[in-house]
Amino acid sequence: MGDNTTLPLHGVPRPLDVELPRWRLVDRLRRRWTSPITLVVAGPGFGKTTALAQAVRANLLEPRGIDAWVTCGPDHEDAGRLARTILAALDAVPEPEPGAPEVLEALRRQAPLDICLLLDDVHEIPGDSPGAALLAAIARALPGTAHLVLSGRRTPDLPLARREAAGELAALRTEDLAFTDAETAALATRFGRELAQDLHGWPALIRLSLCAGPAASWRYAAEEVLHRLAEPVRRALAALVTLGCATEEEVGTVAGAPADLDRLAREVPLVVRLDDGRYRAHDLWAGIVPADHLCAQAVEVLAARGELAGAGRIACRAHDWPLLARLAVELVRTTLSVLPAATAQRWLNAVPVHHREEPAFLLLQAAVTHARDFTDPSIDRLVDRACARMVEKGDQDSAAVALGQAVITAHSRGDLVRLAGIAQRAQHLDASTPVLRLLRHSVNAVLAELAGDPEQALVHLAQAPTSEVPRALSVSTTRFHVHCLAMCGRGREAADLAERMLDDDLARRHAAVARWFDGEPTTTPDSVDSTARDEFVARAFHAVIAASSGNTTTELPCGDPAEKDNPRDAVLACAAQAAVAVARGDEELARDAYKRHLAKWPADIKVAERHLRRFLTLGYVLSDELRERWDNTDLGPSHQKARAAGRAFVRARQGDLSSDLSEAHALCFLPLPWSVELAVRLAATGRTKLGAWLSDHAAVHRKLRDLARDPDLAAGAAKLLATVPTPPDHPIGIEVLGPMRVTRNGVATDAPELRRARVRQLLGLLTLRTVLSREQAMFLLWPELDSACAARNLRVTMTHLRRLLEPGRAGGEASYFLRSDDETIRLVRSDRLTVDLWSFQELGPGEAVPLWRSEPLTDLADLCEAEIAQIRTRHVQNLLVLGELGLVAGDAAEAHHLAERALALEPFEPRGHRLALAAALRARDPRRMAKTRARVLDSLRQLGVGPDPATEILLRQAAASS
User: Fold this and answer.
1) What CA–CA distance (Å, rounded) separates 501 from 499?
2) C-alpha closest to that of 341 among 114, 147, 128, 91
3) How many CA atoms lie within 13 A of 162 on its CB side?
């Protein structure tokens, strides 16, 4: 954090050919580094942008912190677009859907250096828009090392009253920005002209009048400037005025001829070139240069940029409702399910009443209603009317967009009847566009899946052009593709597709579930932001997966199966109920659940049978009818694995133990009572591998004790109980981040084994490496002994270590924590064992730092120097992260304390010195500043290097303040 001292200042205007330095404003704006929020508010032409640009350039000469510049535009009313623009200005990689948390985190990452985010033209963001809400969230939670400059024509509608009352708000207004008489005279001298009238210090008008020569009014002066321009230059100016900011190529496209914008900037006042190569004409020209005839071309350019809000603003200003209608369809097409509702509503409000029944605006109204409440029944009526009129007019492409909105709404509701109706209508449209082709294939896929033919659904989905349509449509289609692959027993392909094409928490859950039902144990996300329908499905899968670990939920996790009115939901509820019943030991209840389900939804119903395959092992074991059917069915790869697990278990009960079922498949496909029973039957024949593999689950040992009372299973259960270690009665803690301690039930033990250096060293090595070869252990601990003597010493040391960790375990019993074979020694992770080093490596800084007591693993200082140094470095970085966060939160004392702790461990750490300097500056303690600065300079002298740029900024500030 805080080691980058420059950011790409895109959009900062270059200095004017004749620019008046406004030092008094630069000096006022320098105070932005001491105020959380600075407002620059005045009407057009008062030099707000010029003053900010001069302040930014002045900071490059004598930096107080880092500036980041954003020029706001109409499309920044969309919070996601604004967040991405701010993150780009901060040189941060944006998340797929960034918001205030991501922006605030990017600001925090600049600590301990101060960061100033300058937002120019903030009036372009409407006060009731999501973009304004984003700014409000940033302003409310602004980090202590961050500053916000908001420049625009009016005071932004943000929650600033508390800041102002606390003296945390600075402001420059019209009276501050207006030229003084001296500034006016100075600019006139530079132009070699006199001002013909008093323009009351209005900078842009004064400049315009001086450029045009002696004139009676600024408007006359502007017209005089235009009169002197050649027609191509005047047309280029009109195009630039219409676009706002544009490249030379874009202006040429709108003007209809190549444009020389360098010449335009030289000949026309108030036209500037920005640092990113674009050009900008001052808004004052908008009321003077005729440009209505270029609206359509400008809209095309803005739409191609993706700036639909700006394009719509042009259409509204020109009262060009046919043009706005085209944009309305494009807005819905490109933002399906993520519509910028504020923009859409603003357009609808601008449309005259007699135009609102036009199909494009009906569609836009439907999209706005969906964004607010997708259950509103009026959406379907609006979309249907829009689609019908589009078809009447022969506008197939727009009709496809309307059907796309209909699909999104029906999918959100889980309305299968509506989807079937949409499919029929899609058949009558010309499938020449990607959206139409996607709709046709997607809806046909839904219908095929509803008919119990997911393979045919995959045929349609393979032809759907998901890469050629807006993401909103492709996401819903891809999710359905994942579902159909899973339905076909192609779980690994389903997981791969979800991970490759989708990037949200719901997709990660789908991928994890698909992998589990393909026989790959994995962790599924607990909770994600999803619809009620998604949560119903998730509860069913969670109940079945939890049963594999012996965990149970409520008796009916998905409600009573008998109450479901369709086979899909009935299967989910039945499987969940049966899995819970088996996990609780009530297999008869589980069999009865399947019997009742098949009575209502026979397996001859194709769609019912295909959904039963989703939980194939349960049905295979619990239903003779399903077992016979599936034994004679060609199944997909995942379903074959599930059938193999069911067969292995059924045959084991019949005395046939020849099946070679992998341990992972036993866990994934069988509820824990069944996998333990299979392990017991195998153990009776001497095969204890499955039992040992399952033993890390505490519920296994309870089940083994239950099975030990069953005459048919007692021998195998007893064998596993003797060979598979039982979890200890109390938790054990091992602490190595300081003097080694072992705790039992949270109380430190003073066991004599802990006083043995070799025991401490072996335990320390196992916390570092978890798995240790016997050869490594002997070489590290007894390098001077021959292999036989070292092996004997290792056996003795391991005996003492087992006694230390599990003093109550009888001799001859397998150790639960310490496992070994002929080649390796392992310290086994378990919910009964905590190791502070493992937690330290897994936790964030806030939780890891308190675990550190002092220098770690001192018994291994000579043996594992590099590994211990890595631990120390991690602790130092954790301290510095917390210190920087403390600085961001305004706690300079805590930041100083953490910096001192870090520097005590790593005296030459540059980041630590930066934090110490920044904390001293924040505390406004001249004595500490001087002392800290001297220490930094001394460290640099000892290293023989100069300060890095970030440290140089802080050293300069400390010198000036101490």
Assistant:
1) 6
2) 128
3) 6
**2-16, 497-511, 858-872: least confidently modelled range:** 2-16
pLDDT for 661-679, tens place per residue? 998 899 899 999 999 999 9
In angstroms, rounded to a whole number, what is the distance separating the alpha carbons of residues 203 and 183? 9
User: What are residue 279's DSSP bridge partners?
Assistant: 246, 273
Question: In 10 A of CB 84, how many CB atoms?
Answer: 20
Q: How far apart are alpha carbons 294 and 311 in whole angstroms? A: 12
DSSP-derived secondary structure for 459-501: HHHHHS-GGGS-HHHHHHHHHHHHHHHHHTT-HHHHHHHHHHH
Integer Cα distance of 949 and 113 in angstroms: 11
Tokens of 307: 């700036």
Could you tell me if 704 and 740 are in contact, meaning their C-beta atoms sit under 8 angstroms apart?
no
- Pair 105, 113: CB distance under 8 Å: no
Q: Cβ(366)–Cβ(386) under 8 Å?
A: yes
For the chain, the distance separating the N- and C-terminal CA atoms, rounded to the nearest angstrom, is 25
Higher pLDDT, 768 or 551: 768
Q: Is 2 left (phi over 0), alpha (psi -120 to 50) or beta?
A: left
Q: What DSSP line would sit under 495-531, residue for residue?
A: HHHHHHH--SHHHHHHHHHHHHTTT---PPPS--S--
Decide: helix, strand or coil at residue 888.
helix
Residues 6+ apart with CB under 8 A from 660: none
The string of DSSP codes covering 801-825 is: HHHHH-TTSPTTSPPSSEEE-SSEE
DSSP 662: -
What is the rounded distance in angstroms from the CA atom of residue 328 to the CA atom of residue 360? 6
Q: Which residue has the higher pLDDT, 355 or 21?
A: 355
Distances 738 to 58, 600, 855 between C-alpha atoms, Å = 50, 65, 5
> Which residue in 212, 231, 232 sits closest to 223, CA to CA?
212
* Alpha carbons 266 and 320: distance in angstroms, whole number: 33
What beta strand segments (E) does 595-684 contain? none
**Per-residue tokens: 167:** 């003296």
Q: Assess contact for 570 and 564: CB atoms under 8 A.
A: yes
C-alpha to C-alpha distance for 364 and 379, rounded to whole angstroms: 10
11's CB contacts (< 8 A; 6+ apart) are 69, 70, 71, 120, 245, 274, 275, 276, 278
Q: Name the 3-class secondary structure at 37.
A: strand
Q: What's the rounded Cα separation, in Å, for the pair 324 and 348?
A: 10
Strand partners, 117: 68, 148
Q: How far apart are CA 491 and CA 497, in angstroms?
A: 10
CA distance 279 to 243: 10
Residues in Cβ contact with 337 at an 8 Å cutoff, skipping those fewer than 6 apart: 370, 408, 412, 472, 475, 476
Please report the pLDDT score of residue 216 as a whole number: 45
pLDDT reading at 88 higher than 70: yes
Q: In angstroms, what CA-CA distances link 806 with 726, 728, 743, 798, 826?
A: 11, 7, 11, 12, 15
Q: DSSP per residue over 120-183, as a string?
A: ETGGGS-TTSHHHHHHHHHHHT--TTEEEEEEESS---SS-HHHHHTT-EEEE-HHHHSPPHHH
Tens of pLDDT along 107-148? 998 888 899 999 999 999 988 889 999 999 999 999 989 999
Asked if 169 and 160 touch (Cβ cutoff 8 Å), the reply is yes
pLDDT in tens, 590-621: 999 999 999 999 999 999 999 999 999 999 99
The pLDDT score that the predictor gives to residue 51 is 92
Q: Provide the whole-model pTM.
A: 0.61
Partnered with residue 7 across adjacent β-strands are none
Phi, psi of 868 (to 5 degrees): -70, -35
Residues contacting 65, CB < 8 A, separation 6+ = 33, 59, 113, 114, 115, 116, 147, 953
